[in-house]
């Protein structure tokens, strides 16, 4: 995938890169007034976005327990109602990025069930409108924010058109899918999306959160869970399924430059799937002769993980062992999931990451994954 840069190389080419402290690859801008988004949608579908509560979205019934935003900074009450911590880009910059030493933030969002919205045209219209709204409200006024090209995979042709429309915009650095889909992501109907990612030299980002909603299968292999606690704890299963599907279906032989960033899935399950997948490949590889290497090689070369929520291991030594197994010096990226800090402070989660690894996790791995566009001026 295209040219990648280290922090030192970036500093030589652009003084703004010198002394970078942190790059956050997962910040969630919040839409509090869909009326501001509707004008960006195709005229015939704008009415779907101006209804109270926003456009129709696929939903599941699991609601988090406890304070949603944890210690994330909250705006002061106005007329007895607290503002949302991620509705105002200036607030997020001043109260989170500047105070916590984050120099660049990649915007993702909360529309994680878009890929299982029954109406493909509405889903594509939502994606287009949100992308333009994010660019105009967040990205172009603030060089510290970079956007993600949100697409709906139900109609690959519309998804590709959206990637082609914005793929060369300097404010966009990746293509974003919710990991909740109708079928495993290795299936051939999704391949045009990956081709478009490769054509524009853009990583593909997956974000969990819509599993079990709309047209999605149940969020576990044995059916729907009962509680939010069970639902959230089971979510890495979907990443296991997508990884196995994409490798088995030959996605990375067909698109050898494609990089995939897995948001909010943790990392401790990765060694298990690598070992099991490799063992089975040795015995059953004749069924998929296009899979030319052990599956773990594809995983380590093409998949990247984020730190929120990094599992709380019983001992720091256990974390170090797992980080070594997954080659975290290349594959682990810092993320905050801001402002959804119900599981704790994102910087506290990396306290046990070995000191020598921290600069790579906080800065250098993101520069390597996203390349020079991550620091390219866009305003």
From TrEMBL:
Any one annotated GO CC term: cytoplasm
InterPro entries referenced in this protein's UniProt entry, alphabetically: ACMSD (IPR032465), Amidohydro-rel (IPR006680), Metal_Hydrolase (IPR032466)
Oxidoreductase found in the keyword field: no
UniProt-recorded name of the protein: Amidohydrolase-related domain-containing protein
Protein source organism: uncultured Thermomicrobiales bacterium
GO biological process entries: secondary metabolic process
A GO MF label: carboxy-lyase activity
PANTHER family: 2-AMINO-3-CARBOXYLMUCONATE-6-SEMIALDEHYDE DECARBOXYLASE (PTHR21240), ISO-OROTATE DECARBOXYLASE (EUROFUNG) (PTHR21240:SF28)
Phylogenetic classification of the source organism: Bacteria, Pseudomonadati, Thermomicrobiota, Thermomicrobia, Thermomicrobiales
The UniProt record lists the keyword Kinase: no
